[in-house]
Amino acid sequence: MSKAGFSIEDIQKGAKSLNSTPVQAKASSKSDDDEEASIARLEKLYQRMNGDLDLIFEELGANPEKAKKPHNRPKNATEFAEKFYKGFYSLVDDEEMADSKSHK
Description:
The protein is mostly helical. Helices cover 56% and strands 0% of the residues. Helix 2 packs across helix 5 (77-85). 9% of the residues are buried.
């Protein structure tokens, strides 16, 4: 017997009694539909503005700084829409960071 009070044999016996459980596919939910609609709107905005990040972010009331960095520039409307929706292009203001650190 091991220090924990269980032997390898005990664990193996217990494992034999376990049954596998099939996993069902995730059903589409309202939030999935909302996400798809939001991404589609962002793609259309990107296309309407011909990929001009300054115009796009002005329309969205957001800061384009992160999106304009060469390694972050979106290659197409879909990439832009997905990243923007997921918050990839969001900036945390230095003041906000200082405030959040001082509240800890």
